[in-house]
Amino acid sequence: MSIGHFFDAGGYLDYGDAVALLPVEELRARVYTHRDAECALGDAPSNSVLAIRPTGLASSYALTQRPLTAIEVASLDNGLRNQIGEAVDVNLAQFELIQIGRATTPAQNRSLAEF
After folding, report:
1. Rounded to the nearest 5 degrees, what angle is found at the Cα of 113, between the Cα atoms of 109 and 114?
2. Domains of the chain, residue spans
């Protein structure tokens, strides 16, 4: 099961346009990772989430190596918000969170004896 809004997000930002957000550890914004990101994304409606999508194999690999991360759009500084806003086709103000990466719940390990 997918956690977050990777497949049903309100908008998408290409990985190449999102490099200003990386590394997230250097952002002066409210950043949630791991379980905190799951909770923040779980509380947010899907249409208020802007998801970072891969543009190729290398960016896909880079995104899968990152933990699930959610960044509050309102906490970004104006310069960064304007830079990201120019890269998306819609108004950035309509989004609450930016989702980087995705997490999946582990599949149940079943033995052949159960069948």
Report:
1. 65
2. 2-104
Reported as type and span, the H/E element at residue 42 is helix 34-43
pLDDT in tens, 52-93: 999 999 998 988 888 899 999 999 999 898 888 888 877 888
Q: Is 97 exposed, middle or buried (0-12, 13-18, 19+ CB in 10 A)?
A: buried
Give SS3 for 24: helix
Q: Is 98 a residue whose pLDDT tops 90?
A: yes
Contact 66, 52 (CB under 8 A): no
| Three-state secondary structure string covering 72-86 | EHHHCCHHHHHHHHH
30 backbone dihedrals φ, ψ, rounded to 5° = -80, 115
Q: Which amino acid is at 80?
A: L
